[in-house]
Model the fold of this input.
Amino acid sequence: MKVIKRNGRTEELDISKIKKCTSDAVKDLEGVNLSELELDAKIQFRDGISTEEIQKTLIKTAVDKIDIDCPNWTFVAARLFLFDLYKKVNGMNRYNHLREYFEKGEKEGRILLGLKEKYDLDDLNAYIKPERDMQFTYLGIKTLYDRYLIKDSKGMPIELPQQMFMAIAMFLAQNEFNPQEWAKKFYDLISKFELMLATPTLSNARTTRHQLSSCYIGSTPDNIEGIFDSYQEMALLSKFGGGIGWDWSKVRAMGGSIDGHKNAAGGIIPFLKITNDIAVAVDQLGTRKGAIAVYIEPWHMDISDFIDLRKNSGEERRRAHELFPALWINDLFMKRVRANDKWTLFDPADTADLCDLYGEAFEKRYEEYEKDESITKEIVEAKELWKKILLNYFETGLPFLCFKDSANRANP
Done:
């Protein structure tokens, strides 16, 4: 009976190779059984079966056996997955030299040119500990494969986990006083899972697209040019793996005037619908969908609709299920809640400078606007608004609650 190998060659089926693979997968693990794995796999051998199909069947069998009472099957599945990965990357059951990895990555245009020249690769290659791959659970190695391992133009992986960790360590250590030794220290921390890095670092460190920032903040001005410039900025930030926090407090409320035309403004919700679609359409380097938190201050007249953004009921045109609404809460609002007092909502077109003030300066200006009879305002019960916020928070975990005055006092 013939089997087809990954390189397209055919050879006689050798059951001993399968037994070697399964034996290595269950080695030194309690609560798992070699015979059970082989019998439950029920591999239908036939002439022309591929070795890849055999391996996938074994992996699926081990995954299906993961159970709270038999947790070590996750390590069996992970090992089988790793054995498959080794073959995909270099056609062998072991690691190739670090230099080969870098050369292949550079040829594919994925690895940063000049990084390997800063190090003694023979020394670092000898320092790599392939046995640390055995720490992975199935979910861990599957996530690493799907999200973080560098792939070539055909979608095939070109690096193995310990090579990835070493290359990241090399990138992070390159400007240290003794980069060779610091690369080893960083490698140990990462590869032993003593710490784990954020998604942009795992995805980008070592690559030609080497931005490592996890999150970005910005603010949208109250004009159409600025609003659409904000969309472009958010899309580009998400493209390169950044999570986003974006303030919309300055954008005029629904029913506001535009160029003297009363009730012309549609408020922030229609613009947030577009932001929602950006989060869906522009993911973070293919590793996960875009993550955008949108902020307003609690005096904004659109706050009620804003709080309901993620609700499953109501008018779908005014929902944005992929966004993370957040409130930038000032102390004055909380004082009014505690005192069971009134709270005044404004159109930012009339009160935009409130966004730039905090503490006593904010309270003074806010109270001046409350007395200004020339501007549009809406008066609500502070405690009722707070109840609505908390009800949504308990139901959905949103909106996020951030306290403006505390943050600014701590960061003058």
About this structure: The two ends are 75 Å apart (CA to CA).
